[in-house]
UniProtKB/TrEMBL annotation, chain A:
Name this protein carries in UniProt: Uncharacterized protein
Lineage, uppermost ranks: Eukaryota, Metazoa, Ecdysozoa, Arthropoda, Hexapoda
Any one GO cellular component localisation term in the record: endosome
Gene Ontology annotations of biological process type: endocytic recycling; protein transport
Organism superkingdom: Eukaryota
Main location: other
Location relative to the cell: Endosome
Homology family: Belongs to the VPS35L family.
Keywords: Endosome, Protein transport, Transport
TrEMBL record, chain B:
Organism: Parthenolecanium corni
Pfam families, per database record: Vps26 (PF03643)
InterPro entries: Arrestin-like_C, Vps26-related
Any GO BP annotation: intracellular protein transport
Protein name as annotated: Uncharacterized protein
Domain of life: Eukaryota
Protein family (similarity comment): Belongs to the VPS26 family.
Length: 970, 283
């Protein structure tokens, strides 16, 4: 058989024909049953996002492009986590606290006390970190230009005149922390610059000016920060002097060994010994008038003593330690001692030879003790603030001792305990003692904390320090914190009056109490938490903390359900004055509800009631202006919650809940969709409970379920979702033998929906689907699904119309405005297939307990006639489409349609009917006339092969009635 | 054509004692040839008194380093050695830079250039230190001093609250190369201390003018800052400055003596001053 030259006929004239369905086609189909293969993995499971990609036209990539990038954590959530952490760091209640925090951070990181393991002292002082931390701090603060100018002017004053009068000091005191750091950095740079220009005395002067600044303790909170900057400058200065002396010594030694080197340019100065220059430095410094700058400068040059004689460093450090007694101000005294110890470490002075940490600490204790023994403090609050400035320094010194010599801690604890006004010492102990020691002596420390002498002292800091310590212990050894400690801590926490402090402590201690958070505790937290949160102004400042606390509370509460039945729970929610925060808190609770593993299903009505209030708050927060993402997030939360409610076998109650949920969560399509799915699930649960056979009562329930869906689905906005749900609900209805109104209505609805779907979709097409073609593909797939259900859908018993709903579907197909010219005819052909299947004696599948048309009308001739008539109409419709396509020159589509039509005729048509045979030949001829028809050749080849195979099969089974002769005719 | 003349001493610290030989090199950095009519080096020591425009010579020696000749282009180093000895029957004193009395030792190098050329000249000071002679050994023994300062010991009494200060100096005969040491103990009760400063004061007198000795401050260092605790011994530590201090000198023509002043300032502006004479020696 060859293909003729493609002609272009102006019109196609098909002879009139009559469709007749062959009866045995299904039997052939049934013979070639597919082999079932059991698979463990769903083929689409791993690439769940593939469908999306396919819709977007990227179907070629099978590998998930994101999967390879993500190993456990996706970068977005990591980023978010980081951002949140940063936020916690930055968002403190007020600027002062920020400063203190920053200062602590600087001091601690600078001195490297975070680890308790003994390390070489050098490694504990990562100098670079300090400047990095400082620079980061500068970057994060904005500067207004005025301030910068001011600083610049200030700087001029200093560098030009090195004046140090009251005016300058007053200006300096007004600086913000970041400005202070900036200013000190400037000094640092000036000093280095002066040194490089060989103006060494100038450099020394700058150092002394900086050291003088350290004598001012007017703003104690900023003092540690100032100290860190100052120690940087001093150490740099000391280093420069040392380096220069070293070079000098080398030059001197080389000048002794080789007095004349003609190649070298003659120096303009006689070689001096390093020793001589070194002495000169010390003479210079010894004549500095002020005590503190003199001591600082001398300490900075400590290393240079190594040029004088061995062991001189130790004697000098001893001397400086003694001399520091003369500094009356506690803060200045302490930080000067810190610097001495720091220098001791930097010069690697052997602690066995001279334990400067111990000595300085003891010396300071004498000063502190005599200070605390005084009873003439006027201002206790300021005194406490003043003393708290000592903490970082004290902690650092104490760490220096305890890390190397843990045995002294017993003695020190007794010493601290016996000091008057020892609240500060308890804090120091909590921060500076080793964790092991604290674990051992926790009883002592608690007893101290509760002692009457500390009765009036606010325990906030102590609780925080203890918490931090316990945090470390817990992460290290995963030991539980004794209940006794927790009890004391929570009792003390309840006494805190300041909201910010209370929230801080609760925030810290909640995760620590995770293994022991009984309901009573949760209740009392809620009870006290409420009034704190109720203050309007505090909420604004602490919303993040409140969120955190609630998050931890929900995460760690022993019995989550009991939280909801707590008498304080709902009142607590109601006390939150800020709606925004209340909604956030409710969201957190909902999240926890969904995430907590121990809280699988809610089944009691008291809990449910509470949760409903929470859920309702979340839902009602949705406004017109709510963004889609948030809507989606809330929707998912609530949908999850809906799935969490289970009343076991009480289907009616379950149904009631779903009705209530539909009423409350009316704004969220996701929830409504979930509800429909839940109802379907419920329907099947019930079917299961009656073992597949409905009694009248259960049938009634199933019908009410179907009715629920029938009402709910049309309220959804997305037509695609509606279609999907309708198909599923329709099947559920069928499976539940709801053959009367509900199921039929559902099906009807499906056909109706498509008409209005087109109109809505035209508007939404731009963002719902990328192209109209996709929309059509989706509709087509749904229509096909629909057809496969309709086959087994029984008709009305009156028998007036065959496949009544199909004709509706046909009308819907025709009324749809197809963009793709192929869609309509291909759907019509599919309908033909469906009718042909319906013609068969036994349908390929059935719903359990549902009698399909094959059972109802099976051999009825009238029924079959009606069927043939319907197919005939469709056939004509298809032919019309073919002619239309031909006229519009849609060859590609035309080809496919004709092929499909031919396939239908071959598969289902009774080719013994002459008119049908003629039609098929005509179609075949028509096929050959289509230009550029490369497919025909392939088809012909394929058909030839098939015929040969069949012919051989027929020969072997002689006398068998088959369609083979018809093929041979072609 | 430029000449750069320099004197380098062998000892980097430039410190010499009586009888030592001051040695070093003359360094002449020269672009082009230099004709000269002799290079001479003078070593001299003198006391300058404010009252007397003519200095008192303590030491003097002149060395002709080089006769008339030429110095080649480039760097020329000429070593020299001059003994440090007293001038006739004069006595050598230590170097001292004061206000009314100055004792200095110098090296001076001259390059004579005849009529046309400009004479080149370079002066350089070096330091002379004198150990105590063995004869004075008795005077070098440490003499500790304890002073109690309280309202009763003060001259002006105007309602100062009670206080007591124990001042201890390890010695009032101080060695120049050792610091002044001691301690202070306060019992000040309600008084609030602001600061304690230690002044080093020179007392210079030129006896021939019959003028009264003049007290001027050499240096002041703060030894206590702020309100230190009671009953705590606070160390006193002050090194003596170079050049500006020397062993106490008492001669017929002039005298240089030293004192220390403790200036104690309380917060209510009360000021207590304790003056102590000290003797400086060198071992």
């Amino acid at each position: 058989m060859t293909c003729g030259t493609p002609g272009t006929p102006d019109y196609v004239d098909f002879r009139p024909f009559e469709w007749k369905t062959r009866l045995d086609s299904t039997k052939i189909l049934l013979k070639h049953e597919l082999v079932r293969v059991r698979v463990d993995l769903h083929p689409l499971q791993r690439f769940s996002s593939q469908t999306d990609h396919a819709t977007a036209g990227q179907s070629d990539g099978i590998k998930d492009p994101l999967g390879s990038l993500l190993d456990g954590n996706d970068p977005l959530s990591l980023l978010q986590k980081q951002a949140i952490n940063q936020l916690f760091d930055e968002l403190s209640d007020d600027s002062e606290a920020t400063d203190v925090k920053l200062v602590h951070q600087l001091i601690h990181n600078g001195a490297g006390t975070s680890s308790s393991k003994p390390r070489p002292p050098k490694a504990k002082l990562p100098r670079t970190f300090k400047s990095r931390a400082i620079k980061r701090n500068i970057n994060c603060e904005d500067y207004n230009t005025d301030a910068t100018i001011d600083i610049h002017r200030l700087k001029l004053e200093i560098s030009e005149h090195l004046a140090f009068d009251g005016e300058f000091l007053r200006k300096f005191r007004r600086l913000k922390p970041s400005e202070l750091v900036m200013e000190m950095e400037n000094f640092h740079e000036d000093m280095v610059r002066a040194w490089k220009k060989e103006e060494r005395v100038e450099a020394l002067k700058i150092v002394i000016v900086c050291a003088k600044l350290s004598m001012d303790t007017e703003n104690p909170i900023l003092y540690p920060l100032k100290y860190v900057c100052l120690s940087d400058i001093l150490s740099k200065f000391g280093e420069q002097v040392y380096e220069r002396l070293k070079i000098k010594e080398e030059i001197f030694i080389s000048s002794l060994t080789s007095p004349k080197d003609p190649r070298k340019p003659a120096s303009t100065k006689p070689p001096g010994t390093a020793q001589e220059t070194c002495l000169n430095w010390f003479y210079k410094i010894a004549s500095v008038r002020e005590l503190v700058p003199r001591l600082y400068a001398e300490a900075a040059l400590l290393r240079s003593y190594s040029f004088l004689e061995d062991g001189r460093m130790i004697t000098e450090l001893k001397k400086l330690t003694k001399l520091t007694r003369a500094v009356g101000d506690l803060i200045v005294n302490l930080y000067l001692r810190c610097y001495l110890c720091q220098m001791g470490m930097e010069c690697e002075i052997n602690l066995v030879l001279y334990n400067y940490f111990r000595e300085n600490f003891d010396e300071f204790m004498i000063t502190l003790n005599s200070f605390l023994s005084r009873d003439d403090f006027d201002d206790k609050i300021n005194l406490n603030r003043y003393l708290e400035t000592l903490l970082p320094g004290l902690e650092w010194l104490l760490k220096g001792i305890t890390d190397r010599d843990p045995h002294v801690q017993d003695m020190l604890l007794r010493l601290f305990r016996n000091m008057p006004n020892n609240s500060i010492m308890l804090l120091t102990a909590l921060k500076g003692f080793t964790e092991d020691f604290i674990v051992l002596n926790i009883d002592n420390l608690l007893e101290w904390l509760l002692s009457p002498e500390l009765a009036e002292v606010p325990k906030y800091k102590h609780l925080m320090s203890l918490g931090k310590m316990c945090e470390n212990i817990q992460t290290k050894s995963a030991d539980c914190i004794p209940d006794k400690v927790l009890k004391t801590v929570w009792d003390e926490t309840e006494r805190l009056t300041d909201t910010s402090e209370y929230l801080n402590v609760v925030e810290l201690w909640l995760p620590l109490s995770q293994n022991c958070l009984p309901t009573e505790r949760v209740n009392s937290i809620l009870q006290i938490f409420g009034p704190h949160v109720a203050r309007e102004q505090s909420v604004e400042r602490h919303s993040t903390r409140v969120e955190n606390v609630v998050r931890n509370l929900t995460r760690y509460a022993d019995d989550f359900h009991l939280l909801f039945i707590s008498e304080h729970f709902i009142p607590f929610l109601n006390t939150i004055p800020n709606i925004q925060l209340r909604v956030t808190v409710c969201k957190i609770i909902m999240e926890a509800l969904v995430q907590r593993s121990d809280c699988t299903f809610i089944c009691d009505s008291v809990t449910l009631n509470s949760v409903m209030i929470v859920a309702r708050t979340v839902h009602d927060s949705i406004r017109m202006s709510t963004v889609d993402d948030e809507r989606k997030q809330i929707g998912n939360l609530l949908a999850n919650f809906v799935r969490h409610v289970r009343f076991r076998d009480d289907f009616v109650r379950q149904m009631e809940f779903y009705s209530q949920a539909r009423m409350i969560f009316y704004q969220l399509d996701i929830v409504l969709e979930t509800l429909v799915h839940c109802i379907n699930w419920l329907c099947f649960e019930q079917l299961k409970s009656v073992k597949g056979n409905h009694d009248p009562a259960s049938l009634e329930f199933a019908q009410s379920c179907v009715a629920y869906n029938f009402i709910t689905i049309p309220t959804l906005e997305s037509p695609v979702t509606r279609l999907q749900l309708l198909i599923i609900s329709g099947q559920v209805a069928l499976a539940n033998q709801c053959l009367d109104m509900e199921a039929i209505n559902t099906m009807k609805k499906f056909n109706d929906i498509r008409i209005d779907a087109t109109s809505t979709d035209r508007i939404r097409a731009d963002f719902t689907f990328e192209r109209t073609a996709h929309k059509e593909i989706i509709f087509k797939s749904y229509a096909l699904q629909m057809m496969s259900i309709l086959i087994v859908m029984p008709d009305d018993p009156d028998g007036k119309s065959v496949f009544r709903l199909c004709s509706r579907l046909y009308r819907a197909i025709n009324s749809f405005e197809w963009k793709d010219p192929m869609m309509q005819p291909s759907l019509v052909i599919m309908l033909m297939r469906m009718y042909s299947a319906g013609y068969q004696e036994v349908y390929p599948y059935h719903f359990l307990n549902v009698d399909s048309n094959d059972t109802l009308y099976g051999p009825d001739e009238l029924f079959r006639q009606k069927m043939d008539t319907a197919i005939n109409v469709l056939m004509h419709d298809a032919i019309r489409s073919i002619i239309q396509l031909r006229l519009n020159n849609h060859y590609a589509s035309l080809m496919l349609i004709v092929e499909e039509l031919l396939a239908i005729i071959f598969a289902f048509g009774d080719l013994t009917n002459k008119s049908l045979a003629v039609l098929s030949i005509q179609l075949w001829d028509f096929c050959k006339q289509i230009p550029f028809n490369t497919k025909v050749l392939m088809t012909v080849q394929y058909l030839q092969d098939e015929i040969d195979t069949l012919a051989r099969a027929v020969e072997s089974r002689a006398g068998c009635h088959s369609a083979v002769p018809n093929f041979i005719i072609i | 054509m430029s000449t750069h003349l320099d004197i380098w001493l062998k000892r980097p610290n430039k410190i010499y004692r009586e009888g030592d030989i001051v040695s070093g090199v003359l360094r002449i950095q020269q672009h082009g040839e230099l004709r000269h009519e002799g290079i001479s080096l003078t070593m001299f020591g003198e006391v300058t008194l404010d009252s007397n425009p003519k200095p008192i010579q303590l030491a003097f020696s002149l060395v002709d380093v080089c006769r008339t000749g030429k110095i080649p282009s480039g760097l020329t180093e000429i070593p020299f050695e001059i003994p440090l000895v007293a001038y006739r029957n004069r006595k050598i004193y230590e170097t001292y830079h004061g206000v009314y009395v100055n004792i200095r030792y110098k090296l001076k190098c001259d390059i004579k250039r005849g009529f046309l050329g400009k004479n080149e000249c370079k002066e350089m000071e070096f330091i002379v230190e004198l150990p105590k002679r063995p004869v004075d050994r008795a005077a070098t023994d440490a003499k500790p001093l304890d002073v109690v300062i309280s309202p009763s010991t003060l001259r002006s009494l105007s309602g100062i609250p009670n206080f007591k200060i124990d001042l201890h100096l390890d010695s009032i005969v101080c060695k120049l190369d050792k610091p002044l040491t001691g301690y202070l103990v306060f019992q000040k009760e309600t008084l609030v201390l602001r600061s304690v400063e230690l002044q080093l004061v020179r007392v210079e007198a030129c006896t021939n003018t019959k003028q009264e000795a003049d007290r001027t401050e050499i240096q002041t260092v703060q030894i206590i800052d702020g309100n230190i605790p009671d009953n705590l011994s606070i160390p006193i530590y002050m090194p003596f400055p170079k050049l500006f201090s020397c062993p106490t000198i008492l001669t017929t023509n002039f005298s240089v003596e030293f004192e220390v002043n403790f200036v104690i300032t309380f917060k209510n502006q009360h000021l207590v001053n304790e003056n102590i004479s000290i003797t400086l020696i060198r071992e």
